[in-house]
């Protein structure tokens, strides 16, 4: 009998199960742009990238603007919900406490932000990925002083990390003559520079404790309404789409290589480029009626910067692929999320058990 108890304790120690009854919940830390922002820009009062007016948020909760650049849920919302993980609050939410962080994680995503510091500068205020990682380091300090160094390390190593940026580095940087990157680089050298920067950032996150991390690739961003309006034919911008494909290819290699090199890490890359492209060329097959114009739009004066209170809404929001000039609708996000869930092979996290401390490498 005694021996059994000893054995159980040894097994428990080996598998890192806390015997003192203390165990941290598995939460998410989200790094991203407007596709994942859940309210940070709302508190960046000088930022021009805002979703703080109707009709943003119309299909979520009380229907009032909540900071999401969408009528409903983000892709990260839907994936997290599917995995049984809590939705992390915005970093700048004034009510965010250490207890909230331990319960729900944090979302640092910021509309207009990019992998590169210089991206989106004309929005005046936004968190670039380096800035978001800096804020995450501040969060780590806070949690260490709350629960101690060792428990904090376990907490951060057990968490899930989402990194979803890149479209602004093209749309609001490289493809705009306003930015020096557009004349400093060509397509190939820019992607090398961009993906090289991402690689350093992902290594930095690993050094800070990130072990289970997923990177979302880009969709056919040449087909967002804003890009289509720029062509005389109203078709997708082929060059922009090619850049997205090249970015996905290069960053997928970097992420998979890092997953093999970095100790105890499960780093994965996934994109929904093909599915979204299929929806755009054949909307009715997927239950959509419109795949080229925004549901919320300011009539003939397109492209209006954002969806505004004076805009008119489409009749059925679930039938539009795009919510505004830049962003997919809730329904399209659901389709993207389902594709990523399939590609990543996610399963529901059972929060009643201790989270696995060491992810299976390269699973
Ligand atoms: C990017 O910005 C961060 C601050 O957020 C700074 O620490 C870093 O040096 C910058 N990197 C480059 C390459 O400018
Ligand atoms: C990897 O996991 C093992 C066993 O859990 C641990 O001893 C080691 O310190 C970990 N390495 C890193 C770099 O986290």
Model description:
With 363 residues, this protein is an alpha/beta fold. The protein has a single domain (26-344), classed as Rossmann fold (3-Layer(aba) Sandwich). It is built from twelve helices and nine strands. The chain has helices spanning 2-14, 75-83, 98-104, 129-147, 149-158, 167-174, 181-184, 187-207, 225-229, 238-261, 273-281, 330-344; strands at 28-32, 105-107, 160-164, 212-216, 266-270, 290-294, 296-297, 312-313, 320-322. A five-stranded parallel sheet has the order 2-1-3-4-5, with helices on both faces. It is globular. The two termini are 37 Å apart. One 2-acetamido-2-deoxy-beta-D-glucopyranose is lined by residues 117, 130-131, 134.
Please render the helix and strand layout as text.
Elements: H1 2-14, E1 28-32, H2 75-83, H3 98-104, E2 105-107, H4 129-147, H5 149-158, E3 160-164, H6 167-174, H7 181-184, H8 187-207, E4 212-216, H9 225-229, H10 238-261, E5 266-270, H11 273-281, E6 290-294, E7 296-297, E8 312-313, E9 320-322, H12 330-344
Parallel strand pairs: 1-2, 1-3, 3-4, 4-5, 6-9
Antiparallel strand pairs: 7-8
Helix pairs in contact: 2-12, 4-5, 8-10
The site of one 2-acetamido-2-deoxy-beta-D-glucopyranose has 3 residues, from loops.
């Amino acid at each position: 009998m005694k021996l059994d108890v000893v054995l159980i304790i040894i097994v428990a120690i080996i598998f890192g199960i806390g015997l003192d009854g203390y165990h941290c919940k598995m939460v998410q830390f989200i790094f991203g742009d407007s596709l994942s922002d859940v309210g940070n820009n709302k508190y960046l009062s000088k930022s021009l990238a805002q979703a703080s007016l109707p009709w943003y948020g119309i299909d979520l909760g009380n229907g009032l603007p909540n900071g999401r650049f969408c009528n409903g849920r983000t892709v990260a919302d839907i994936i997290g919900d599917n995995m049984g993980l809590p939705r992390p609050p915005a970093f700048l939410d004034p009510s965010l406490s250490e207890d909230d962080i331990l319960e729900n994680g944090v979302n640092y995503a910021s509309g207009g932000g990019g992998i590169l510091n210089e991206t989106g500068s004309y929005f005046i205020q936004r968190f670039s990925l380096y800035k978001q990682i800096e804020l995450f380091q501040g969060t780590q300090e806070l949690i260490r002083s709350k629960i101690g160094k060792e428990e904090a390390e376990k907490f951060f190593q057990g968490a899930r990390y989402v990194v979803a940026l890149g479209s602004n580095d093209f749309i609001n940087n490289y493809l705009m003559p306003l930015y020096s990157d557009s004349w400093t680089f060509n397509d190939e050298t820019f992607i090398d520079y961009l993906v090289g920067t991402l690689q350093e950032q992902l290594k930095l996150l690993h050094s800070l404790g990130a072990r289970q991390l997923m990177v979302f690739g880009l969709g056919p961003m040449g087909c967002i309404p804003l890009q289509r309006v720029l062509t005389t034919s109203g078709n997708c911008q082929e060059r922009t789409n090619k850049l997205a494909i090249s970015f996905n290819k290069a960053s997928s290699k970097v992420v998979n290589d890092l997953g093999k090199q970095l100790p105890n890490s499960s780093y994965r890359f996934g994109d929904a480029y093909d599915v979204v492209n299929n929806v755009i060329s054949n909307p009715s097959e997927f239950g959509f009626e419109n795949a080229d114009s925004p549901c919320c739009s300011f009539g003939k004066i397109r492209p209006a910067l954002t969806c505004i209170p004076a805009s008119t809404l489409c009749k059925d929001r679930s039938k539009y692929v795009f919510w505004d000039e830049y962003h997919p609708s809730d329904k399209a996000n659901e389709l993207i999320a389902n594709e990523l869930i399939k590609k990543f092979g996610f399963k529901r996290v059972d929060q009643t058990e201790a989270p696995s401390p060491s992810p299976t490498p390269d699973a």
